[in-house]
Amino acid sequence: MGVTEAPIVRSLLETDLYKFTMWQALLHSHPGAQVEYSFLCRNETVFPLAELKDEVERELDHLCTLSFTQDELDYLSGLRFIKSDFVDFLTVFRFQRRFVEVSTDGERLQIHARGPLVHVMGFEIYMLYIVNELYFRRLPTGPEILGEARRRLQAKVALLKQVTPELCADPEWSFTFSDFGLRRRYSGPWHDEVVRTFAREVPEFFRGTSNVHQARLFKLTPIGTMAHEYMQAYQSFGSRLRDFQKAALEGWVQEFRGDLGIALTDVVGMDAFLSDFDLYFAKLFDGLRHDSGDPIEWGEKAIAHYRKLRIDPATKRLVFSDSLSLPRALEIWRHFKGRIATSFGIGTDLTNDTPHAALNIVMKIVACNGQAVAKLSDAEGKTLCDDETFLAYLRQVFHHPAAA
Description:
By secondary structure, the chain is α/β, with parallel strands linked by helices. Helix content is 43%, strand content 15%. The chain has helices at residues 17-29, 53-63, 70-77, 84-91, 117-120, 123-137, 143-162, 164-167, 188-201, 212-218, 228-233, 244-256, 270-276, 279-284, 295-308, 326-336, 348-351, 388-397; strands spanning 34-41, 100-105, 108-116, 177-179, 206-209, 221-222, 262-264, 287-290, 317-320, 341-346, 361-368, 371-372.
C-alpha cells in the first residue's frame, strides 16, 4: 500500500446488507457453528495475485482494528428487521486476525478464514473488495481510465432516460434496479460516484444499494436478504440433507416474520428448490432471486410454479442478480412485464466498467461443523466444493443433472 493511500475499508458498515441479515439469523439459531471460507479467482489476471499478499495482510490488519461507531449502530437499529440484541452484539464486536490466513501457492493468492460462523462469515465482502482495489491500484490509473469509465456511466444514464417513456408507461409494472457491486468495485471513490450519479440522474429507477455504508451516507434504501452461505450452512445443521432447504427457509421465516421475503433459489438448482418451495413457503415469501442459469427459463419456471400452486404470479416478485448489464436487465423486464413484478441487482457492470478487465473473485463457505458444504449451480463454473464425494452425494440426493 502506498504511503499516501488511505485504508480500503472505510467503515464496518461498508459491507452488503445481507451479511447483517444472515449474521443476525445465524447468531440466533446456530451461534456455535464452526466454518471455513476459501478465496478463489476464476479468471486470468494481468499479474499474479500472489504479489498482493503483503498488502492484503496490511489491509486485513487495519480491518481488525475497526469497530462500529455509535452512529452506525443507531442506523442499524433504525432498520425494522434488525433486533436490539444483535446491535448489542455488534457494539462489542471486533474482527479477530487469528481467524484469517493469507498465503501463496506459486502465483495464486490463497485466503482461508476458519472459526466461529458468527465471526468468520463477516470477512467475505471486505476481503473481496480489498483484493479487488489493491489489484486495480497496480494497473494504469491515469485520467483516461476514469474518463472512459465516466463516459460509460453516462451512457447508462442516457439509455435509461431514452427509454423513460416506456419504463413509466405503466406504473404497476415499473422497472427498478439496485447497485450490487461492492465486492468487485474498481475503488471506493468510484463506487461513491456511480451510486451518487444514479441516485441523482435516474431516481425513479434507482432503488438503492446493497452497500450499507453508502445507503446511510447517501440516504438510500439498503437492499438485500440472503446469500448462498446461509442456505449452504444448513447442509450441516442436523436435518436430513434432503430437507436442508426447507429448514433454512423455515429458519428465515421464524427470524424475520414476513420481512426480507425474497428467497434464493440456486443452491442446488432451481428444479430442486421448487420441489421444496411448497404452498406454505410460496405464500410466506414475497418472491425469488435468480443468480445462475438462463434468467428467462428460470423466470418461466417460477411463474409456472406459482400458477400450479394457484397463486397469482402478479402478486409476487422476481429479483435478477446474475452478471447483469442494464440492457440485459431491460430485456428481462420487457419479457416478464405484465405477468410478474421484477427488480434487478446489477454489480460489476455498474461499479467496475472501465478499460481494465474486471476480476471474477469469490470467497465462499466450503465447510461447516467439520463437514463439506456445496452449491450446485445452474451455471457452469459456479460450483465450489473441494470434497468430490460430498458433491456427488449432494447431486444424487437432489437429482441434479450433473449426476447423470
